[in-house]
Each structure stands twice: as structure tokens, then as C-alpha cells.
Amino acid sequence: MKIIVDAFGGDNAPLEILKGSALAVKELEVEILLVGDEKRIRSCAEENGISLDNMEILQADTVFEMEYEPRTLLKEHKDTSLGVAMQALAQGKGDAVVSAGSTGAIVVGATFIVKRIKGIRRTAIASVMPSEKGPFMLLDSGANIECRPEHLCQFASMGSVYMNKIIGIENPRVGVANIGVEENKGTALQLETYSALKESKLNFIGNAEVRDIPFGVADVIVADGFTGNVILKMYEGVAGMLMGNIKAIFKKNLFSKLAYLGVKGGVDSFKAKMDYKEYGGAVLLGVEKPVIKAHGSSNEKAFKNAIRQAVNCVKNDVVGEIKAACAKVE
Amino acid sequence: MKIIVDAFGGDNAPLEILKGSALAVKELEVEILLVGDEKRIRSCAEENGISLDNMEILQADTVFEMEYEPRTLLKEHKDTSLGVAMQALAQGKGDAVVSAGSTGAIVVGATFIVKRIKGIRRTAIASVMPSEKGPFMLLDSGANIECRPEHLCQFASMGSVYMNKIIGIENPRVGVANIGVEENKGTALQLETYSALKESKLNFIGNAEVRDIPFGVADVIVADGFTGNVILKMYEGVAGMLMGNIKAIFKKNLFSKLAYLGVKGGVDSFKAKMDYKEYGGAVLLGVEKPVIKAHGSSNEKAFKNAIRQAVNCVKNDVVGEIKAACAKVE
Above 0.90 for ipTM, yes or no? Predict the structure, then answer.
């Protein structure tokens, strides 16, 4: 199996990308096709003592900068490492792409270069997130600002396949992100999606009241990309703010530092449960081949996990399973 | 000044409502008009040793149950304590209403019995919420599932008046809740609201990236009621889940309990900063007289704070200031 890696995407490229790739080669028995400027890749690897065993390099002269318009990936900036990586995937030079680059551009590349699965109407950014009860998938978490009910139904179907095949949840519970559990809550989008999912063969549990999401109310939560992105970012924002303040409380003085020793075990295991980096990145569902968007701030370990996620998608033929599931629905 | 209190709204009615009202009479030099079944009120007060000094009782035979359709407040259930309280406010029997009852019914009562201010197109539920830097106001947080840009502009104007007159913030910073800071982010609603607010005389700071909301990025944050409600509930949900788990870590064993002593001071002062009950309830803005929705689970102190909030709205003539501000905008 060969995973195509955009060596110049994200805040810590290329160093952490190369380190993560080397780790993946070692741990996952996978080949890597690094995409980017060969000279820079080789000098970075050499300076930092990173082995490039089992890795090939595909030359790309430039980098897709965060401020570029996503659509420019198709023309003006197709020679960037991200653009070349997407083309390589489309041409079958590898089995999946992993990039920590611009989310918008990854959506564009996945949709228009790798291409959507026939019959799938929208590509979704599917994020695996932590809850008190374990991971759940939120989709769409930002690719499609506006959606129709039929899009959300496909998201539900694709998310169920992923949570079953990759996370190993039998019969994943599907919910519609909403401002109440009652069937009559929300806008036309939520109302119509509710009715449609009720008739489906998915394990639909009704509306996922937003307040209950962090407690693990469903395994797959569907939303339009605007609402999904709000949920994702409120989760990150509130957790970041609270944890930052609690950290500061422990660091305040000698007593508080000593106090930390008494709870360190509990804190560490809770942190591990909440560590979304453990699940890899966000996966673009509805595309002909697996495309993984690693977090922009990915370090070595997070990037390795994103590669592992790509490997798992290929191994478990998530794309084929999605095709089969959606054919059944049609 | 006389505050009308729905004695039978909320999970802890009438006991905590009566206790909170008695506390308000003592601390705030205010008269209370309790609305509800007189016999039940008097026996509850007697049993619990609550003084009814400076309180009158206005008889209402029934209670507005949570499962009733909000609109039934206008006809079938106008004889409930909530319905009678709203009518009393409309008739000038008091200066403001405070209820911990059904949010939907309070919106209906405020809008159609107390009535909207002339020129105000939508009544907004305005919630004062905590951030790392201090309180901010989120509106609409659930009254209007769908909104137009002109509604959000009025919300911005009303929220600025409140944060200035009641919370004491000079020149409140106004932001549009959005999935990025860039001017081109969001749906047509966010785009058009951005353009309109840029031309206004408000202290518009642009889009409030949702992830930054808990860090205090703006003093007034406007959104449609669906998005606002999602933000409110994700805030409550994530904070509730994290704090619950952290509490459990401290309670785990003797060491962790001892550890708590080392950080208790810091935890207590952080908790106080984050205690949204301190600011009272949600205020319905755009209505001819102040209407306060206290939290359904309000205890004595939370309900007293909601009465204090009503008193402050009357004292500072928030309604008059909103009328003046909106006349200027038109």
C-alpha cells in the first residue's frame, strides 16, 4: 500500500510531516510517496537524521499558501505540493492522500481532482471527535455551508459506514444535530432530514440535542457545514478555554503544583480519552479514494495517526463500502 | 417599583421562587406581585417560614406546563400563572415580569401580550454568558429559528444598549457569530449582516469566530436563533461534561481529595467568574416592557438575581434606550 503525503501542508511542514511519515513506515509497514520540493525534503531529512527508507519523492515546485483561494488549486496553483498530490491520487500513483494543508483546497482537490463517487451529491468533511462515551463522527463539519436534506441523509449513510468499518461500532446510532430532541424542532432542513432518516434502514435515534453531544448521545451526527463547523469550533473553544484556565490554576504556586500530583493519574487518563489527535484527522467522505485532512498544527505523532487513518480506510475499503451502502439507499 | 413574578414557572416552583422573591424584597427594596394560586402560595410560604412582606398575590388558577404548545398561552392557557403575569404587565400592574417557565411561551407572551416595540421586527432572547474576559451577550439565542440581516442588525443595536446600560461596558464591541473572521465567510445571512453592520454607528469588530467566543472576543454577539441556540448549548454541554469529569477526578480517592485543597482557592474564583447565574436570566429584548426568563432550574439565589436584572432594566430604562437607539438607526 502506498500513501501519498503532501510534505508541505500545515504549520510544521516539512519537518513534522517527514518525522510522522518515517514513523508510519516503521510502525505500519506502508510505503510513502512524499510530494514537494525534493531538494528541500532531502536537506530537511538529512539535517534532522530522518530516514527516507520506503519513501519516494514526487517533485512539486511550490506550496499552496493558506491565503490562496481554494479554487485556485485547480489551475493557477495546480503545481503546488497539494495539487500534485491530488493529481497523483487521481492517476493511481498511490492509494490515499494525507495533507495538513488548507481545508478549503483539500475539499476542492478531493471533489474535482480525485472526484466524487457517482451518486454522492456532496463531499463532506467528517471529523472524528471525542465524547465522554468514546469517539463520534460529525459531518459535515465545514465543506458545504448550505445543505439539503438529501445531502444530510447521504452523510448519515457514509458516517455509519466509517464508524462501523474503521472505529468498529456495530450499528452506529445516527442523530441530527438540533436544538431539541422533539421531532418538530429546527428549520426545514432538520425537519425534513428527520422524516427521511426515520424511513431509512440506518440506526436513526432522532435529534441529537446539541447540549448532549459532548456526552456521547450518538455515534454519527449529521449537520449542514455551517452548523457542524459551529459545533466543532465551540467544542474546541470551550474545551481550550476551560483547560487553559485549569492548567493555570495548577501552576499557580507550590501548593497547587503539589496538588497536581494527587490527580495526575486521573487527569492523564481523561486527557487521553479526549485526545482527538488519537483518531487521526478529518476524512473527506464521498470521494473516489481516501483523502485525509490532518490538523494544521499536526506534530509527528498526529501526522502518523492521520497516515494510519488513511491506511485503515484503504484496508477496510471504506470507499467501496460507501458505494455499496449508497447504492442500496438509492 | 413593582416586579411581577410567575410563582409557578420552572422546576423548583413555587418554593425557590418564593424564597428568591423574599430575598429580593429584603435586598433590593422592591415590591413583588406574585402570580399563581393564592392558597398554594400562602401554604408554601407558611410551611417554609417565608415572609410575604411587600408582596401581593394575583390569583391564577392553573400552571403553564412545559409540554403545552407555546402559542396556547394566548387562548387556551391564558389563565395560567404565566399568562396572567403577562397580561398584568401589559395592563401596567407592574414594571417587569420574571418567569422561570417555558421559554417558548415566554417569547409568545412577551411578543403578543406585552407586545413588541414599534419598529422592532423580532423579539430576541438575549443571554448574558461568561467568557474568560467577562460577560458577553448572545442574541438571538433561540426565539427566532430563522432570521434576516435586518433582524440581526436590530439585535446588535439592542444588545449594545443592554451591555452598556446594565453591564456598564462603554462602547460594546459587536461581532457576528461566524465560522471564520474573514468578511467572505458564512451564508448570505452573515455576509449581508456584516456589510450592514460595517456601515452602522455601532462598534462593529467584524466576525466573531466561534472558536474565540469563550475567550471573550466581543461584548455583543449576534446570530439567528438556531445558531445562537447551538452556541449556547455547546457552551453548556462542553463545560458541563468537562467540569463533571474533573470533579470526578478530584473525588476519586484520598490523595485526590487532599489535592483539591491545594487548588480550591483558584477553582472557586474561576467558578465564580464562570457562574452565569450571577448575571440573572435571559432578557427578552425588543419588547415594550422588561421580561426576564430565569433559568428553569433556578434556585433562590438565581431567581433573586433574575429579579435584580429586571430591576436594573427598569431603573436604567433599557426599553426607552432601545427605542431611542432604534429610532436613530431607522
Answer: yes
